[in-house]
Design brief:
The protein has about 280 residues and is an alpha+beta fold. The protein is built from eleven helices and eleven strands. Strand 5 and strand 6 (about 180-185) form a beta hairpin. The structure holds iron/sulfur cluster (2 copies).
Length: about 280
Amino acid sequence: MCEFCHKHGEGGKWYLRAENYSEDLLTDVRRRKFIERFMSEPERLQADLENLEKLDRAPALIRGVLVWALSNRQKRVHFGQVVPIEDLERILGFVNSVVRLPCICRKITLGKEKRYCYGLSISPGGGEFSRIIRGLEHNYLEGPDTSGFEALSKEETLHALREHEREGLCHTIWTFHTPFISGLCNCDRSDCIAMKATVTHEFPVMFRAEYVAKIDPEKCSGCRQCMKVCQFGAIAYSGAEKKSVVDARRCYGCGICRAACSKEAISLLDRASIPASARLW
Ligand code: SF4
Ligand code: SF4
């Protein structure tokens, strides 16, 4: 299990623990301020993106120290984890409301409103998290597609999440001052700053999933559809065998390849059961 499961999971997966979504955690003034600043100053993310480029140009030793220190800081304030759809279904089993809102990353990287983000709450109507955001002067919410927050039923949310999988997007959940969880995003490496940071720039701001994909060679037809959708370059193709195989060391366990496989050849296994990736987060 990941570091957060050990610290905040009470022996299980940390994101399946209802206490980590508790409204009580929002009585913390620092946490509220962080949410307000995060949501109302999207230009800070733009600066983060530019800083990643600068970090890449730093000497290796300095870069290593900075990445370690800054990544640890991120773990305290805003950190994510890849979560496959079956665990999102479990989360939807105990949260009491979901609101959909425009993605702040896409606003910065594409200049477009893309409603790929969701706020989860234990309380009805989006809870206190939504009330904080609604009270902001949030320029990133302005735009032709923006009609404010949409309240979604659990069924509608699940349907939308499956649609995002078909688009090749990877589900991630996010803390706002760890361990409080309220964000669910649908990411790709092209447009999401967190995924760019973690995968492209090797500056971790999210954990891999608690799972790793495996392809059953008996079922695999070698169509390579899974390779096209994997955001992490974790699938290789054997020309000799005419089969695809997962590189467990690269796999983030998102399950997007599974959704793309018409032969039902792909399953997710517990990361801990795969020695090559058990310690890779
Ligand atoms: S999508 Fe399925 S059948 Fe096609 S190569 Fe991948 S695992 Fe094999
Ligand atoms: S191989 Fe791993 S990382 Fe790639 S899509 Fe499948 S589950 Fe996700």
